[in-house]
Design goal:
With 281 residues, this protein is of the alpha+beta class. The protein has two domains: 2-132; 140-265, Gcn5-related N-acetyltransferase (GNAT) (Aminopeptidase), CATH 3.40.630.30. The chain has ten helices and 13 strands. The chain has helices at 13-16, 24-30, 67-78, 98-114, 120-126, 140-147, 162-167, 181-187, 228-242, 256-264; strands at 2-3, 36-40, 48-53, 57-62, 88-92, 129-138, 157-159, 190-195, 198-209, 212-219, 246-248, 250-252, 267-278. The longest helix has 17 residues, at 98-114. It is globular and about 60 Å long. It starts with a strand and ends with a strand. The mean pLDDT is 94.
């Protein structure tokens, strides 16, 4: 794995367009809309790409790497060389055999941990995990039919402001997906439901490329289960329909709240693929 200078990120785009899953988070990195890193098998004519979004999502695609690439990839995903400074979630191109490669690395590394003599909780923390990522397709008619039965709330829903961009807290918030508040104000959009003048739930564009807008959602723990997420997501979907944008949804299958919320909003599961949690080691 060789880190690619950002002026050469365009080299990854032709192969990225052949990957038949949701790759918007990787595309915004390659288009310099958000910070990230790109690693390749060689600099002159790269055919293998590993794209990392600053939020901690990554995508591996292209030709199966050579032996040197595979060796460095193993050290990267297991973080034995301390290259990474955050937990990372990795997707691979399902058209290739990368999932087989990752499954083999996972078994090897986790097997070594089991024999290391570490305490069980330490092994769990350091282990690589294999989860499932789900891509959805949006069905306009299903959404419009479901919308008739959405809960009605008296709380106001407002557009996300620059101030809210800067002050909102949580694990999935606009500031993690946009360079700054000016970038978000120019190219992004979001809606927040306020309860007692505080943000209870927010739906926002986590990525926007071409005519597609990927939806991010965050609801304060104290306000979950009240239907607020449906309301703010509906506001954002209505924005998409008004502006001829395709709303996009993806989540971990293990995140059952997001999985079923998507279906309430007219999304239908289309693709499932492995989703690897890469520990810090």
């Amino acid at each position: 794995m060789i880190e690619l200078e950002n002026k050469y990120y365009y080299k990854a785009l032709p192969l990225l367009r052949q990957v038949e899953i949701n790759t918007m988070f990787a595309e915004v990195v390659l288009n310099h809309d958000i910070s990230g890193s790109v690693y390749v098998d060689c600099l002159d004519n790269p055919r293998t790409f590993y794209v990392v979004h600053s939020y901690g999502m990554s995508l591996l695609f292209g030709d199966l790497g050579n032996e040197a690439f595979m060796d460095k990839l193993y050290h990267y995903v297991t973080n034995q060389s301390a290259t990474r400074h955050q937990v990372e979630w990795l997707q691979t191109d399902p058209a290739g055999r990368w999932s087989e490669v990752m499954d083999s690395m996972l078994l090897t590394y986790n097997g070594q941990l089991e024999k290391s003599g570490l305490l069980p909780e330490e092994i769990e923390r350091k282990s690589m995990l294999r989860n499932t990522r789900v891509n959805f397709s949006f069905h306009r008619d299903a959404y419009l039919e479901s919308k008739q039965n959405f809960p009605k709330h008296g709380e106001p829903i407002i557009c996300v402001t620059k101030e809210q961009f800067l002050t909102q807290t949580g694990s999935v918030i606009p500031s993690f997906f946009w360079r700054d508040e000016e970038h978000f104000a120019k190219e992004g959009v979001g809606y927040s439901l306020l309860r007692d003048r505080k943000i209870a739930s927010t739906s926002f564009s986590s990525c926007r490329t071409g005519n597609q807008l990927e939806i991010g959602i965050e609801t304060a723990e104290a306000h979950r289960g009240k239907g607020y997420a449906v309301s703010v997501c509906s506001a954002l979907i209505d924005y998409c329909l008004e502006h001829e944008l395709e709303p996009v949804w993806a989540c971990r299958l293990e995140n059952q709240g997001s999985y079923y919320l998507a279906q309430k909003l007219g999304f239908r599961p289309t693709v499932t693929l492995p989703y690897y949690r890469l520990p810090l080691g």
